[in-house]
Amino acid sequence: MQLITVGTVAFDRIETPFGKADKVVGGAATYISLAASFFTDQLGLVSVVGEDFPQEMLQTMRGRRIDLDGLEVMEGRESFFWAGRYHYDMNTRDTLETRLNVLLDLDPKLPEAYTGAPYLMLGNLDPRVQAKVLAQMSERPALVVMDTMNFWMDSALEKLTEVIAQVDILAINDAEARQLSGEHSLVRAADKILGMGPKYLVVKKGEHGALLFGQGRVFFAPALPLEDIVDPTGAGDTFAGGFIGFLARTQDHSFENLKRAIIVGSALASFCCERFGVERLLEIDREDIDQRIQQFVDLVDFDIQVVDGE
Ligand code: AMP
Asked: Is residue 65 assigned to a domain?
């Protein structure tokens, strides 16, 4: 295996000012692995679902060469469930409900074939589970990327900071970076968070793009202005899946290549927002992705000669 992902595989109830979906398949690891599957076919998923999780979706994932040997199915139990409501700007949301269900009992056992993978994506879920996955890798992966959210900062901060100290890249949104650091300025927040261990910090800002901090440098990638944002749920995870999938494919961890990975992640995230749940990710192909990456290039392409003032 080349890339292992851990995270939730879930049902979501989503309300936006423009529509709602009562029960769609979601979860951090679902979005991550679907996005990453465009770049690698050596992809293993570690998570848990209940008996209620649709077999068709598991088949769809297998069809994309996502290995599910690390996905436990708990009989007679219900899958992780999350409900959220977006504000008018679609950039901020309230969590209405989080039912951990099967996640309460997840004690991950990595299949042998997963333990030597060079790329590890610690997607959003209980940091105790993220730590257990990391500890089961037979050697330190070449690159560990991590995501998390306010829920875990509120409920398991100590364990969370322990895991953060062990990863190469932390990718979180602006509100989470502010909460984790206690700093409003994202530059100061990045300084503090990089002081906690990671070499790089990616700050996702929804429709305002993403920032990459690290090695004393900063890079900014825009988000594509979309005509209609139907549902931003999973955009952050889709970003992360595209980001690490591209890095696993190119095996180059230089700052220049991280910049490319951020554009790739942003391109995939833009698709995710065009429909509820994972629907749009299941429709697109590599050609769609390449065209969208070109749109990003065009969006920020300008020529300017800086003229010295007299
Ligand atoms: P994103 O919009 O990228 O932040 O991710 C949304 C996804 O995260 C949804 O599909 C949810 O199922 C999942 N999710 C929500 N709350 C949590 C949580 N506390 N831990 C892990 N995953 C969660």
From this structure: yes
| Residue 310 confidence (pLDDT) | 60
Pairing between strand 200-204 and 210-214? antiparallel
Q: Point out the ligand 1 atom lying closest to the alpha carbon of residue 233.
A: 2
* pLDDT digit string, tens, across residues 245-275: 999 999 999 999 999 999 999 999 999 999 9
d(Cα 271, Cα 120) in Å, to the nearest integer?
24
Residue ranges lining ligand 1, Cβ < 6 Å: 8, 10, 12, 26-28, 82, 98, 124-125, 149, 151, 233-237
> Any idea what the CATH number is for the domain that residue 63 is in?
3.40.1190.20
Asked if residue 105 belongs to a domain, the reply is: yes
Instruction: Name the closest-CA residue to atom 14, ligand 1.
Output: 27
Burial 147-184 (b: 16+ CB within 10 A, else e): bbbebbbeebeebbebbbebbbbbbbbbbbbbbbbebe
Provide the residue range defining the domain that includes 183.
3-300
State which residues of the chain have pLDDT below 50: none
> Which residue's alpha carbon is nearest to atom 20 within ligand 1?
125
Give the C-alpha separation, 67 to 294, whole Å.
Answer: 31
Atom of ligand 1 nearest to the CA of 239: 3
307 is a domain residue? no
- Whole-prediction pTM value? 0.97
What is the number of domains present in the chain? 1
- The verdict on residue 305 lying in a domain is no
CA of 291 to the centre of ligand 1 (A): 28
CB 136 within 8 A of CB 108: yes
pLDDT for position 210: 97
Give the model confidence (pLDDT) of 134-168 as tens digits.
999 999 999 999 999 999 999 999 999 999 999 99
